[in-house]
Write a structure and sequence with these properties.
14 helices; 4 strands; 326 residues
Length: 326
């Protein structure tokens, strides 16, 4: 009897943990923060923390869209190419005298078009989104390389608009952090407090059941493809504002980082489950790993290996928690 009661309490505890958005990522964040505090001498400085937040914010803007799309049961491997392509459009237009605000809007419209075509091809031709976006990832990266000849573009001017996008405002912290926090708040509200959010979860949980409930499944997916592309374009423009330059390989590999951060944050790759709060913790963890390893003296190329290990551990923990909670 006592053993049964303990088992019930354990199951309830696991259920509570499972319902806590991003618990696994938050726990990993705390552990890594403690480890890097001892192994990296400059880790606890304001400059270091600002660098972590900046890296996490630019990735996080992309990951917000990836989270929404993955909850609805789809993938987008083209976000890195959209990131770089939109930034290049913004930079190139700025250099030929187009006002920065107009160049920014046009860059986002290009991203909108790419997201719309990704969604349309996926839902109308019933092609797995993995294949669709793998193709468009290669397509837009190839177009970008052919367009630039492999050379980067630099903007030499100064502008208040670039400061609004990603200028410094306190102790090395940048405006990208504010953009990220605002986007997390907006997306989280939409996901948890609106009919759109219910449709996203229902679409990812069971497409056929969602259709029977009258949910326009194809429209939900196309909208999410557009959102993730526009947010990727925004992130590219935000990073361009930080460096005032962009090269044709900018954003390469970001698609895997964004998916990793989203999965570490508790979003299921099968769809139907996830949260923006978890993604917030996930991108902070990824940003902390990147900066912490460098400051600890580890070779920079260990970063991807470390993220891979964290991703595998996060998936295993998430899977086991679900099994034990049943």
């Amino acid at each position: 009897m006592e053993s049964r009661r303990h088992s019930l309490l354990f199951a309830q505890l696991l259920g509570s943990i499972q319902r806590c958005p991003g618990f696994e990522a938050l726990a990993g964040l705390v552990v890594l923060f403690a480890v890097f505090s001892f192994t990296a001498t400059r880790f606890l400085t304001l400059e270091s923390l600002a660098g972590i937040v900046t890296v996490a914010s630019e990735l996080g803007i992309v990951a917000c869209g990836v989270t929404l799309l993955m909850i609805s049961g789809e993938f987008d491997l083209s976000v890195g190419s959209v990131f770089g392509f939109s930034a290049m459009v913004f930079a190139s237009l700025s250099n030929v005298g187009v006002p920065l605000v107009i160049g920014f809007v046009l860059a986002l419209l290009v991203a909108f078009f790419i997201g719309w075509t990704n969604g349309l091809i996926t839902v109308k031709f019933h092609i797995p989104s993995f294949i669709t976006t793998l193709g468009t990832m290669m397509l837009w990266r190839g177009v970008l390389l052919a367009w630039t000849g492999g050379f980067g573009v630099r903007f030499w001017g100064k502008s208040l608009f670039l400061d609004v996008l990603n200028g410094q405002f306190f102790g090395g912290f940048r405006a990208s952090a504010l953009w990220f926090v605002v986007l997390v708040a907006i997306c989280n509200f939409a996901l948890t407090r609106t009919p759109y959010g219910n449709s996203v979860y229902a679409t990812g949980g069971s497409r056929e059941a969602a259709r029977l409930l009258g949910i326009p499944v194809d429209r939900v997916k196309v909208v999410n493809f557009i959102i993730v592309a526009v947010l990727s374009g925004l992130a590219g423009c935000v990073q361009f504002a930080r460096f005032a330059s962009v090269d044709p390989l900018r954003g390469q590999g970001m698609e895997l980082e964004a998916i990793a951060a989203t999965v570490v944050g508790g979003t299921l790759m099968s769809g139907g489950h996830g949260s923006l709060v978890g993604t917030l913790f996930g991108v902070l963890l990824i940003g902390m790993v990147r900066s912490g390893l460098v400051m600890s003296g580890a070779p920079a190329y260990w970063y991807q290996a470390f993220v891979g290990v964290i991703l595998i551990i996060a998936v295993i923990i998430n899977t086991k928690l679900r099994e034990w909670a049943k």
